[in-house]
Amino acid sequence: MKIYLAARFSSHPEMQGVRDVLTALGHTVTSRWIDLHNGQQPNSVLSQDLNDDPAAFEFIGVNDLEDLDAAETVISFTLVSGGKGGRHVEFGYGLAAGKRMILVGPREHAFHCLPQVEHYPDWPRLVIALSAKEYARV
Q: pTM for the complete prediction?
């Protein structure tokens, strides 16, 4: 399965670990943001920077949309509150594109309650579910 990980930018080290587990389970993670867009985005971009030079940061949105398009499934993490909301855009984009939607953590808005959204209260429970499905295929 090709998976896009949507989470707060500051959680990129944690998402690298999530990617490693998913890769070990035989999945592919398409999210370049977790590797800081191949080192081109060392920090979260401030609103002031986005407004001062939007062209300099266009590649981030382009990369994320390409990575979302390449995925079959979007896993959205709500484990860390706060942030600027990009992960909510990614969730909505995946939902609108008809992708398999998985939420990890507490529901934050009504779209997380839709019947097509699979919900797991935490990462270990999702890993168990994915592992059980992989085991059932063997």
A: 0.86
